[in-house]
Specification:
The structure holds three protein chains of three kinds.
Chain A: E1 15-16, E2 26-30, H1 32-45, E3 49-53, E4 58-60, H2 76-79, E5 80-82, E6 86-97, E7 103-115, E8 118-124, E9 137-142, E10 155-160
Antiparallel strand pairs in A: 3-4, 3-5, 6-7, 6-9, 7-8, 9-10
Chain B: E1 4-11, H1 22-36, E2 46-50, H2 54-57, H3 62-66, E3 77-80, H4 86-99, E4 105-113, E5 117-118, H5 142-156, H6 160-174, H7 188-193, E6 196-199, E7 201-202, E8 211-220, H8 221-227, E9 232-241, H9 255-268, H10 273-276, E10 279-281, H11 287-296, H12 305-310, H13 327-330, H14 335-350, E11 365-372, E12 377-384
Parallel strand pairs in B: 2-3, 2-4, 10-11
Antiparallel strand pairs in B: 1-8, 1-9, 4-8, 6-7, 9-12, 11-12
Chain C: H1 15-19, E1 25-29, E2 36-37, H2 40-50, E3 54-58, E4 65-66, E5 72-73, E6 78-79, E7 82-86, E8 89-95, E9 97-98, E10 116-121, E11 129-133, E12 147-152, E13 165-170
Antiparallel strand pairs in C: 3-4, 3-7, 5-6, 8-10, 8-12, 10-11, 12-13
Classes of the chains: A mainly beta, B alpha/beta, C mainly beta.
Chain lengths: 161, 385, 172
């Protein structure tokens, strides 16, 4: 077939499927230096930590080991602080479909919660989609301590105050 | 075009599995680089960074993800992505940002976190093979290297022992590198007798899986001269890509590197690289590749490399030390970062700052090279003082 | 000589740091599948494999007879629309004896090593190899330069795939 010839019926265009259900690999992510400390506080003490760059007057949440604006190293001893477990809804969405496209029985709510100068993406609970408003104050609800594993899911969800 | 120099360099340790996230690794390398030349992030005009496949770190658009760790917040930032060749390509990429006159300084940062890939980073290479004409054969990544190594050995009558000499040389050099993930010297017997993976490749012929990052700061001539009295000039850069129909190439000779090297040497005004180059950092993910690449770099006549290696030509006290850093075999192989580590090595060696592993005789001209994608891309940088 | 090498960060973890739960990790997988269109040239290549034949294309300009067939010669960058049948025999350009799986795990006791090879197909231009597998040969008997021939699946089992050739085996 020359370069100008065309396959006109899709069925003529063969394709090859490897026959495997999925790409047979996975990833394992460490939380990092800052993440490790951040999650230890979530898990052990139910606290949310940020790190503050005084020079730039920015408090990052979750905590980081550096300021992205000026590249100062943020030290755990000096620059980390407990930012509390409350924040406000910066934005939100109601999710009506699963990731494969099926209709969900109940829409789930996901919010960007502003705490200090950071945003945490998490679930919202205890509120109906039509009641949620940007600017609404919310508070983190933690899993019981013995169920916490040192991950973002140690926070069950955020709930309006 | 303006003259461009390396004025600072820095890197993380290379480790099998790092606690740091890709961002944090990038930060450590970038921050150390800035500290090494007394600059702050404000002095950085733009960022050129690189990581190889997204799949290793397991983060789509990994460049954007790690940009803030590379110092790219609110700055012109651009990622290069040519597999294993990324680390040296990023230097060329940074070079034209500055040589063009568009920016006075450019922070070049490369990072790789291979430990994220499970069960083994190698598995993520399944789709590098042609999905229709090769992948149904259920290949694994090692095949292409084994096939190339076998053809290279056959062509010149090299033995596995010959190839192992390169591993021994590089691993010995690497023991003196403070970022190395190794602690033990190996012998030719160790390499040859290590478990066979895919003939002719045995375990110790191969560099390890690693996490790490490396960075250099590039500056235009007037800025470079203000910052340091020992700028390391980028004399030439080159890069070339050969056909992706890899099984139709002459596997015994890296044609893609031949062209890339000539491009860089032409730019640098080098006529006789085998006489003019003082130190060489050929890309060495496998021991045979170091030798294969020396030939492509025009630093050794085809088929004579083992003889020169045995004669001590490429030893630390030889005419042209090969991989004084230790290379990927001796320091570690966090893909993109490994190539940049080679550029860092040129920086330290040419300034006489490599400490215990300093090449004697005040080397003045060095070449670093990396190689990647479907064994078809090479990037070359020539640096001089 | 002053050492000024600058190294910072790169905190090494052991497998135990992770397995003991001391270091927090998150596992995830892509959970997606792909199907690839074969494209025009390879479509015909596969269709001919189903017929038990190997077909190549010839470059109009450099006259290379190319495998796998392609609609343009990537060296001359001109269309290559002349289809030619080539043999199902060839010469081993290079080979490997592979003792590990795709995920780097070792093949089991008694399991035969994989024998990938680049085979230069007779009738195609010199050096024009394809990757395939060898069989019906002891691994230590394989030599570069050995002549080999395709062993085809029975016609009824062929699907239009590179696997319609089961493997290549040495011939005298």
């Amino acid at each position: 077939m020359a370069i100008l010839e065309r396959i006109t019926r899709n069925i003529d265009n063969r394709y090859w499927d490897p026959g495997t259900k999925a790409f047979p690999v996975k990833n394992r992510y460490t939380a990092g230096v800052a993440g490790q400390w951040f999650f230890e506080e979530l898990k052990e003490n139910g606290k949310i930590y940020g790190s503050r760059c005084e020079d730039c007057a920015v408090t990052y949440v979750p905590a980081r080991i550096y300021c992205e604006r000026c590249f100062k190293r943020l030290e755990k001893e000096k620059d980390w602080l407990d930012v509390g477990t409350e924040g406000e809804i910066h934005s939100f969405t109601a999710v009506h479909r699963t990731k494969t496209g099926e209709e969900k029985e109940e829409p789930s709510l996901v919010a960007a919660v502003k705490i200090a100068d950071g945003l945490l993406i998490h679930r919202l609970a205890g509120v109906k989609p039509e009641q949620v408003e940007i600017g609404m104050k919310v508070k983190a609800e933690f899993k019981p301590k013995d169920e916490r594993q040192g991950g973002i899911e140690d926070i069950k969800h955020f709930k309006p105050l | 075009m303006r003259k461009v120099a390396m004025v600072g360099a820095g890197m993380t340790k290379f480790v099998r599995r790092a606690l740091e996230t890709p961002k944090e690794l990038s930060y450590e390398a970038a921050k150390t680089t800035l500290d090494s030349c007394g600059l702050s992030l404000d002095d950085v005009d733009c960022v050129a960074h690189g990581t190889a496949p997204d799949a290793f770190d397991g983060i789509h658009q990994n460049g954007e993800y790690m940009a803030c760790g590379s110092g790219g917040w609110n700055k012109p930032t651009m990622r290069v992505f040519v597999g294993g060749a990324t680390g040296v390509h990023a230097i060329a990429h940074g070079w034209y940002h500055v040589a063009s006159g568009l920016f006075d300084t450019c922070l070049v940062v490369c990072e790789e976190k291979m430990s994220s890939a499970m069960p083994h980073a190698q598995g993520f290479f399944l789709t590098i093979f042609d999905s229709i004409t090769e992948r149904p054969l259920q290949p694994n990544l090692l095949w292409i290297f084994a096939l190339e190594m076998n053809r290279y050995m056959e062509r010149y009558g090299y033995t596995k022992e010959d190839m192992a000499l390169a591993a021994v040389n590089n691993k010995r050099n690497g023991l003196k590198h403070p970022a190395s993930q190794f602690t033990d010297e190996v012998t030719v017997d160790d390499v040859v007798n290590s478990e066979m993976m895919a003939y002719p490749v045995s375990r110790l012929d191969v560099s390890p899986v690693s996490d790490g990052a490396a960075a250099v700061l590039l500056a235009a001539e007037p800025v470079a001269r203000r910052l340091t009295d020992k700028p390391v000039w980028i004399e030439g850069v080159g890069w070339t890509l050969d056909t992706a129909y890899w099984a139709t190439r002459d596997l015994s000779y890296p044609r893609y590197l031949d062209k890339a090297a000539r491009m860089a040497y032409d730019m640098a005004g080098i006529r006789e690289p085998h006489k003019q180059i003082d130190i060489a950092e050929p890309y060495d993910p496998f021991d045979y590749k170091a030798l294969h690449h020396l030939e492509g770099l025009q630093l050794s006549p085809r088929g004579k490399t083992v003889e020169l290696l045995r004669d001590g030509h490429f030893a630390m006290d030889g005419n042209m030390p090969m991989c004084p850093s230790g290379g990927l075999l001796g320091v570690g192989n966090p893909i993109a970062a490994a190539g940049t580590m080679k550029a860092c090595e040129l920086f330290w060696q040419l300034r006489g700052e490599a400490g215990e592993r300093q090449v004697p005789g005040n080397p003045r001209l060095g070449v670093a090279q990396a190689w990647g994608d479907l064994m078809q891309v090479s990037s070359v940088v020539v640096a001089g003082i | 000589m002053k050492e000024k090498v600058q190294v910072s960060g790169g905190t090494g973890l052991s497998a135990k740091d992770v397995s003991s739960g001391k270091i927090f990790v998150t596992d995830d997988s892509l959970d997606c599948a792909y199907a690839w269109d074969t494209g025009v040239a390879v479509n015909r290549y596969l269709a001919e494999l189903k017929n038990g034949r190997i077909i190549a294309t010839e470059c109009r300009k450099c006259k290379r007879i190319m495998l796998p067939p392609r609609l343009f010669c990537e060296l001359c960058y001109v269309p290559s629309n002349n289809w030619v049948y080539v043999q199902d025999t060839g010469v081993i350009n290079t080979f490997s004896i592979c003792h590990v799986h795709w995920d780097a795990s070792r093949i089991g006791e008694g399991e035969k090593p994989h024998l990938p090879a680049v085979i230069e197909i007779d009738g195609a231009s010199e050096g024009m190899g394809i990757m395939h597998l060898l069989n019906e040969v002891e691994p230590d008997q394989i030599k570069i330069g050995m002549k080999v021939k395709a062993v085809w699946k029975p016609e009824a089992e062929r699907t239009g795939s590179i696997n319609d050739i089961k493997y290549f085996k040495p011939i005298e």
